[in-house]
Amino acid sequence: MSKINKEYLIERAKIYREEAQRAIELFxxxxxxxxxxxxxxxxxxxxxxLKNGQQETDAYYELLEKMAALPEGEDSLFExxxxxxxxxxxYIDSAKWS
Length: 98
Description:
About 80% of the residues lie in helices and about 0% in strands. It has helices at about 5-30, 30-50, 60-70, 75-95.
């Protein structure tokens, strides 16, 4: 993977992580509807990237596939947002050192 592409994917993962954090903060402040909207936006973006991506067996695309498969619903909203945040951070840390 080229250095430019690697840096781009890291930046995309950072955006997902930051948006998940924002949605968590909305959720914790009681604004569940807006938190759900942010999560849906994250998932739509993942699906769009998967459709337009190279479909490599890269860790980034595996992350996107798992994010796109997260269940809908208020019951698992916080857990899904936390999963996105944590796994984006794991990807960022691993990509920086590879």
